[in-house]
Amino acid sequence: MSQTYIVDLKNNVGKSVTIKGWLYNKRSSGKIKFLQVRDGTGIVQGVMAASDVSPEVFKQGDGITQESSLEVTGTVRADKRAPGGYELTLRNVKVIQIAEAYPITPKEHGTGFLMENRHLWIRSRKQAATLKVRAEIVRAIRDFFDDRGFVLVDTPILTPAACEGTTTLFEVEYFGDKAYLTQSGQLYNEATAAALGKTYCFGPTFRAEKSKTRKHLMEFWMVEPEIAYADLDDVMKLSEEFIVFIIQRVLKNRREELEILERDIAALEKIKLPFPRVSYPELIKLFKEWGHDFVDGNDLGAPEETVIGEKFDQPVMIHRFPMKVKAFYMKADPKNPDLALCVDVIAPEGFGELIGGGQREDNLKTLEKKIKEHKLPANAFKWYLDLRRYGSVPHGGFGLGLERTVAWLCGSEHIRECIPFPRMLYKIYP
Amino acid sequence: MSQTYIVDLKNNVGKSVTIKGWLYNKRSSGKIKFLQVRDGTGIVQGVMAASDVSPEVFKQGDGITQESSLEVTGTVRADKRAPGGYELTLRNVKVIQIAEAYPITPKEHGTGFLMENRHLWIRSRKQAATLKVRAEIVRAIRDFFDDRGFVLVDTPILTPAACEGTTTLFEVEYFGDKAYLTQSGQLYNEATAAALGKTYCFGPTFRAEKSKTRKHLMEFWMVEPEIAYADLDDVMKLSEEFIVFIIQRVLKNRREELEILERDIAALEKIKLPFPRVSYPELIKLFKEWGHDFVDGNDLGAPEETVIGEKFDQPVMIHRFPMKVKAFYMKADPKNPDLALCVDVIAPEGFGELIGGGQREDNLKTLEKKIKEHKLPANAFKWYLDLRRYGSVPHGGFGLGLERTVAWLCGSEHIRECIPFPRMLYKIYP
Questions:
Q1: Mutate to test the interface with A, among B4, B70, B119, B201 (most CBs of A within 10 A)
Q2: What is the pLDDT of residues B171-198, one digit of tens each?
Q3: Residue numbers of A between 202 and 221 with CB closer than 8 Å to B
Q4: Do residues B171 and B252 share a domain?
């Protein structure tokens, strides 16, 4: 029996179709039973009247439990009152398997319980909607760079050296050697940008951080573009265009999912170019005006990101942080060598840092000195220094965290719902 | 100074442009110097006549070493004899950095040396072409599934249990627990397919195999679709359509790169639907006819893949292998329970297995028995068994190895050239 997906019902009004899916919910009212069926693309209500089906099929309806698998055949009817706008007048129901008592019932459950049943929880409407928005964001990200001539390069996950310190690294035994799970593809991207001009990587990254916040995962996805012959201004311009592109795409293709998630869509619709630009020294002044207690010279923390997110309804680009709070590879601002040519993009509504990026140090001598100052293993960075030895150019890029972006666009309180199977502190099941 | 990319010269004939790149090669002939410049999007020859530039610029030309970074300004001229079809009549050359003596010269180098300098080797024409074909294949893969309603789900890299045995797993210390780097997202995909209907994952996978062949990497990318309500025939049909889609896309968008790689393009152009289908029992007969020594009941090895690849000029779908050589989750053929409802797709020209897939066991009792027989840790598979407890449906999918596909399409002898930074036995630098 050929299968029609619920998402395609709009093209099949008046026709007889077969939906293959699972029972989402049911109720009955005298001689009529209402079966809500989901198939992964949507949910549709099947209306089964005793007069339309065989007595066996009608009777069987009572025994179909939540999440039982079934194939329902019926005629598609447009009905504005129906969720999704369509209903099925059922002619037949074929049960594939009667499900055991499903652990996730329509009543409220604690998050710990739901996370233990993550493999089932993703079947629920809001979780599925979040995963679809995530997939849409991934496609938007890839289209943005592919259409602008960036070449995708998959940088390695197993790496010999640390990009930023070693305390938050997952260690792997590699045939007698020590290897680490990557925290960023940036250093490799600097090599590929020198080979291919404009490149990006987009893959999983890892951080063995003993923190249990709503904004941290041990394993998360990050997209990192890198451009040869680019400066901080280029990086900032690309960042804001990129974020607006993603939002527009999601608003266009996933509005229904945003509605399921009860997202304040107006807050996303008002995001527009250009984003406010605030230098770190300017930010210090603003913090004073706002009465926010902050030590000049420190890096921003979660409280600062929250304050900034409340004061602006647009993403804000904070640029030129003090050199000493930033990574060794950052280039100093020639106009003020205490400041780095870098930028953090902070989301509105308290969703925190979306992007970190900047211009890279391209002078061999300066970089050698920095590596020494940061007490990094010189040997592991030999190839990285080669990039400054053989045709060094001004270059830069940024990294955007996927799950943070999903959380922002979906309005998710907790980042763990923004990835199919989150990896958190002490939690690696399922 | 605004930048034009070499790939866009065709739209700038007669205009003055600035190319920002690196010196690929040079030669001189009396009062004319020829600078070949690459910028990642292509290579163009700049012709510098003593009469067209200042004496300082002309003289400086002698000192520009291979891979020095430079900006060249000149007028675009169409010239059929020129590689790429265009030349620049130079008016100015600005050197950004004079490169030290570049280790990779136009002479021949050993592969070991080139792999030690992988971060520089990717700048060469053939390596860059391979990486561009790879990026094109990735985009084709994602478009194929996205356009057919599959939802991308990123399955976890850090996993608590092994999909197929534990001897080839990389182990990671996870906050006092043991975790392993994933070898496949399939089991998770079975959960997401039950939630979303049609899904796919596409990420890095790992295999700690002590083998040093031309076809193995420790870290490689794999795409794995999974479909609820699908049987082996659906999986086979999707496999062949998928492979033809990828080839057509690469032939359309990356012909120039295939030519740089001296690929036999005709061999790719003749790949067409449907692919030959050969059952394992039929294959045993064919091996006898061909005089190839093979023990009935064994799995295929590299010699068998080579023989099959020589006898067909199309990818071949070998289906229904003996149950006992296949993984525990395979469904037995109801018509012959000794055979599994599975398929391997073998590439022509000796490029080996591209795809492995099939229909999954969907019966709870049978699967519980299988897990016991294979001595797998029951606890780790509790969630996986839940999928058969709550609305089990016939379902299936496959996995395609990215680097194998790149190797085939590029005609690469060695898979290590098909990923930017390969991870091989004892080799994790750069």
A1: B119
A2: 999 998 889 999 999 999 999 999 999 9
A3: 203-204, 206, 208, 210, 218-219, 221
A4: yes
Average pLDDT over residues B250-256: 97
The reply to whether B104 falls in a domain is no
Q: Any chain A CB within 8 A of the CB of B151?
A: yes
Which residues form the domain of B44? 6-97
Write the pLDDT tens digit of every residue in B195-227.
999 999 999 999 998 877 788 899 999 999 999
- Nearest residue in B to A227, CA atom: B40
Say which residues have a Cβ less than 8 Å from residue B376's Cβ, sequence separation at least 6. B161, B162, B328
Average pLDDT, integer, range A101-115: 92
Whichever domain contains A330, its CATH number is: 3.30.930.10
Cross-chain residue pair B170–A175, CB shorter than 8 Å: no
Helix/strand number for chain A, H first, E second: 13, 18
Tell whether B51 is covered by a domain: yes
Distance in Å from the first CA to the final CA of chain B: 34
What's the predicted TM-score (pTM) here?
Answer: 0.97
Contact B430 A191 (CB under 8 A): yes
Q: Answer yes or no: do A157 and B157 touch at CB < 8 A.
A: yes
- What is the residue whose two structure tokens read 């509605």? A259
My answer on whether A174 and A75 are in the same domain is no
Residue A91: give its domain's CATH number: 2.40.50.140
Q: Which residue has the tokens 């260690």?
A: A171
Query: Is the domain of B92 the same as that of B136?
Result: no
CA-based nearest residue in chain B for residue A175: B426
Per-residue pLDDT reduced to its tens digit, A58-103: 999 999 999 999 999 999 999 998 888 999 999 999 999 999 999 9
Chain centroid, CA B171 distance in Å = 25
CB burial of A324-348 (b: ≥16 within 10 Å; e: otherwise) equals eebbbbbbbbeeeeebbbbbbbbbb
